[in-house]
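Translate sequence into structure tokens.
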Amino acid sequence: MREEQFKKQLVRQAQIQAGQNVLDLGCGTATLTILIKQTHPEAEVTGLDGDPRVLAIGRAKAAKAGAAIILDQGMSFRLPYSDESFDRVLSSLLFHHLNTENKQRTLDEVYRVLRPGGEFHLADLSRPLNLWARLVSPLMARLEDVSDNHKGLLPVMMRQAGFKLVEDGVHFSTLFGTLSIYRGQKPVY
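Result follows.
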């Protein structure tokens, strides 16, 4: 998946500032969460995942890395945080696991927990942009809930949640198809 490359790009794109609260949504074993904290030690970094077993692995990895992060258990479409709690939300390879309804619910929740002017940065499978991606996408569609991604609907869904300045920026060719990094901003009222 070229994980190291795209995750570093995702963190660079987020332009995290000192003192910001950052959420890694669907953090899994906390690889991205730890990377965020190591790259921006002055940020408050929280990871959230629904699977307690992967969170236990993440906690062990964070302890070994000396990364002072918070790892919470919860679902992306029902976030356990107050309105306007975060300056940045990042997500890596979560959305292709969600059905259409839960993708939209998750985007609505991300919008809710972001502060005005806050940004959402999302890396996931997207429209096939080359021959290999077009060949592998039917197989991926059988294995994952990826049809919205392949149809290029993630930016549309982000706008429906209220995000402005939605961008589909950097693309990576992977064994599993095209991966794109999106950005959206919650407007300042």
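Note: Strands lie at 21-25, 44-49, 70-73, 86-92, 114-125, 164-174, 177-185.
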